[in-house]
Amino acid sequence: MKQLFFFFIASLTVFSACDNTSNSKKHTPKVDSTFSPIVNKSNRSVDTVRISDKTLSDSTITIIYPELSLKIKQLILFDDSTTTMATQADTVKLLVDLGETIEGQLISLNSDGLTDVKLEQRYKTSVSIADEGPHCDMLEWKHYNSEWKRLHRNKDGDFICLDYSEKDSQKFPSVSIREFRSAVKKHCGQRWDTLIRNVNKVTDAPSNVGISHFFLRLTGKLKTSGKKIVKLIVIETPMGC
Fold first, then answer.
1. Where residue 80 falls among pLDDT bands split at 50, 70, 90?
2. Is residue 117 part of a domain?
3. What are phi and psi of 240, to 5 degrees?
4. Contact (CB, 8 A) for 26 and 15
5. What is the structure's pLDDT at 18?
6. 220 pLDDT above the threshold of 90
7. Which of 14-23, 68-77, 132-141 has the highest mean pLDDT?
8. Structural domain tally of the chain?
9. Residue 81, domain member (yes or no)
């Protein structure tokens, strides 16, 4: 995976320090309600090991639509026992594990029934406030939404996901400190407002801006009818514990 080995160890340390009584978002696995999970261990690499074993994991996520199948070749879900899913829905929501990203990942398609296939990617940033382990992710407040950018294929025909710089991941709409503090009181509470009393902007510690969601959009036309199809994959990435 793209993250360095020590990141995973650090992430485990942070997990152990988390306060379960905090106002931080408690993540549960999110997938579209129409998903029919297919637990198929043969789709996982033979050297797959859970993060709890402090070893890098290599996992392929497969989404099967009526018109095509899509594989993200290295991505670990919050519930990584399910690696293959079938859905009738046009929008799919996935929650990935801490530290996971689609940046630089490879995506393959089995889309023999489609023409004019195009895959695009964008991202969204959110504000998170940390208090050592506990944190409050302001996922219901303001965000920066990047533009859609088309993904290109490598020589093997796989789509290559985009990478983002630290500057990209910290983009956020202009807000006043007064507006920010008001939003923190509303979405997080007084404890968190007290923590940010000395900040001058949303990127000043203990506040931080980071990528909270990735989006993949696939479009194409059915060869049989010319009907246009649009598939959207929303990937939520934990901003903390």
1. low
2. yes
3. -170, -150
4. no
5. 42
6. yes
7. 68-77
8. 1
9. yes
Question: 16 pLDDT exceeds 70?
Answer: no
Pair type for strands 135-138 and 114-130: antiparallel
Question: Which is it for strands 84-86 and 61-64: parallel, antiparallel or unpaired?
Answer: parallel
Q: Confirm if 116 and 17 have CB atoms less than 8 A apart.
A: no
What average pLDDT does the structure give for the chain? 78
Strand 207-222 vs strand 135-138: parallel, antiparallel, or unpaired? Answer: unpaired
pLDDT computed for residue 135 by the predictor? 84
Tell how many helices (H) and how many strands (E) occur in the chain: 4, 13
Domain interval for residue 226: 25-127+142-170+211-236
Give the residues across from 170 on adjacent strands.
none
Residues 6+ apart with CB under 8 A from 180: 127, 196, 199, 202, 207
Query: In this structure, is residue 56 part of a structural domain?
Result: yes
Q: Is there a domain that residue 189 lies in? A: no
